[in-house]
Amino acid sequence: MNVQAKVTVKGQVTIPVKVRELLGVKDGGPVVFHTEGETVTLVSAKKPTLTELLAGFDPARHRHAPEERGWDDAPVGREKL
Prior knowledge:
By secondary structure, the chain is of the alpha+beta class. 15% of the residues lie in helices and 15% in strands. It is elongated.
């Protein structure tokens, strides 16, 4: 889909309803502009779901006790400055 819009004097562009619906962007919702050369891609900046956040998590890698990871030297509590 190609949709044309105008840039205002303030540098703003209204995202057409069809594009907002396609991206799932609500009023006040965040978007991200990706640029590559003279090409700009607009994507929804929705918050990732828990499934998306945990997609790269490897439980086997995080199974060891803190001492086994070298955390026994880590300061406990807050230090006064």
